[in-house]
Amino acid sequence: MSTDRSIVLFDLFGVIARHQRPGTLGKMAARCHTPADAFTTAYWACRPPYDAGRQSAPEYWTAVLRRLSLSVDADTIEELRLTDIDSWSRIDDPMVAYAQSLRDVAEVALLSNIPSDHADAFLAAQPWLHNLDHVAFSGKIKAAKPASAAFHHCVVAMRAAPTDFLFVDDREENVRAAQAMGMNGHVFTDRDELAAVIDTWLPTRGLTRK
Description:
By secondary structure, this protein is α/β, with parallel strands linked by helices. It has helices spanning about 25-30, 35-45, 45-50, 55-65, 75-85, 95-100, 115-125, 140, 150-155, 170-180, 190-200; strands spanning about 5-10, 105-110, 135, 165-170, 185.
């Protein structure tokens, strides 16, 4: 059942923010004196519990280093942690402006897979996030896409119905998961295509926000 609200729920990375800065994993691998492909495999293999708020940053980086049979020390962990946060810090300014402009005609929210310490850094550096109607970071809500719990959090937190949402993500598996929850979904490729989809989805572009 719809509550007749229009909520555009954005993914962050690959939509409003840039993906990880190219070359970062190689840089971190070199810091650890380990092959880049092995470091990349360990980095992503250990990531899910960190993204979902079930591990702290030191626990995550300890897991990565141990998987690589490397020594673990606090200085290395902190250097890797800060390099990692910086590598995910770039935004797409035109997309930020577009998302903000939608607040004249719809509610705008965010659902991102991002560790808790990354989320803190992003919130501190990007004040526009505080102007959105809701922001959900996986490391904070203890649930990561494509798990249904991540989408359920947004529905409950916004006191809405799944059909009130248009979920926008660059990963098809996440969009399919949102649709399975009853949300509308769009796989993001570029801003112009998204704008056309939203123009069709919204009752009218001049609709007053609820």
